[in-house]
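To assess whether the prediction recovers the assembly geometry, we first specified each molecular entity separately, as shown.
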Amino acid sequence: MAQWLKNAIFYEIYPQSFYDSNGDGIGDFNGITKKLDYIKSLGCNAIWMNPCYDSPFKDAGYDVRDYKKVAERYGTEQDLLNLFSEVHKRDMHIILDLVPGHTSEEHAWFTESKKAERNEYSDRYIWTSWWLEGGDGLNFVAGESPRDGAYILNFFKCQPALNYGFLKPEKPWQKPMDDPACLATREAIYDIICFWLDKGCDGFRVDMADSLIKRDDENKSGTIKVWQDILGRVHRKYPEAAFVSEWGRPEQSIPAGFDMDFLLDWWGSGYKLLAREYSDHNGGEDNSYFRKGAKSGSAEKFLKDYMDLYEKTKGKGAIALITGNHDTPRLQPNLDNDDVKLFFAFFFTMPGTPFMYYGDEIGMHYIDNMPTKEGGYSRTGTRTPMQWSNTENAGFSTAEGNKLYLPVDKRNLAEINVETQEQDDNSLLNTFRKITAFRHSEPELNDYENLELLSHEPLVYKRGSIVMAVNPTGVDKKYKLNNKPAGNVLFSLGDASLENDEIMLPAGSYIAVR
Ligand code: GLC
Ligand code: CA
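The predicted structure of the complete assembly is given in tokenized form:
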């Protein structure tokens, strides 16, 4: 695992919406460069930037038309290289987004692949043998090309699946994984990784990393094999390159060669029950554990999931805990500021690598029912412009309001912006800074192998000599320690306190003691 990951705290940037440096209404590379000191001031020392490559943007850039060319709207390649070097000057790191499962339907490989006559790219994508042959259970598109066949999709219609072969090929068009065409796909992805690492990025977040092998990929063994090959070679050549997978099963992705894997807000997942329980049912009571008003929220399922994965991967890789991302609803308004402070305190003191989604540090709100933008649909409300100040465009851009990539959320702008929260020691922004400062100041919090769970309710956990407890419920709680600590309170939120060998946890509080 890359050394720099040991104390990394990531900040995720959706480049469209972060900061517009040239007044055309859309965020760009130079805008990110201008805000690096801000990101660093948060205690974040690493950045994950969503796809920034040439694309028709039918899925916000996850439909790549040319992996080696930057999208014009974000600036030039030189601007990106300048961003890399400004990041490194500040002792920070930056990872790009790699989309290995599919390309845009406008990628040159696909233009070739669609042709009736056979060529080098005919088998770069998965095609059935003739136009009326369905996808054998996989989503497919027919009738769009001179080629007599249907192609398999990885996500939207605009995203044909790249061909890595099948673990158990059954139909003539299902190639074995070691077919030369499938090995050529691997090689092409390896080449793209090296291309950007050579230009100075520090690694990749890998989109739909578990999706490479379709159908009957038993326990993902085929997909794991492909990654072991690709990442094995990459890590030998670039030992300090870091890879985080969108996979959601660290017990599979870490052995596949990833350094870290995200826990995702899948239906019924323990992660989701912490803050987004509501979207598992239609209407009714929201019982997210971190929502004070919840009647029966519990961390039980999260702790069970987490501890199981932790035991399986400890010493080998990291679980990546996200506050949210460009696909999930934001924490607010479902949680309020006080709830979110506790959520941050918990997440940023757990082992593994934490990720802050831009705007979550000031409590930006999720917007329901926003008209879709670039394939965002319900995700669009999570991608609005960063709120820098209480001004017309929230300080995001000097363009006219109707030219912005997405409209600014003006509903609570007076409180939810960086400038205002800078002035208040108790704001969500400054509380987050205190939490990251606490994490950076205690080497034990960067040790990924020292977690002990002392109690589920209240939630009490130990890292080396530090005992931490959180009570996001509306009911006061206590916890009696086995050994009386020296009595040092290292960090606290709400009215938590230590009385002899007892931790007092009034409703809505957090404490760390040694
Ligand atoms: C991932 C991305 C998402 C994208 C999809 C297809 O889930 O996070 O934004 O739409 O993959 O690439
Ligand atoms: Ca711009």
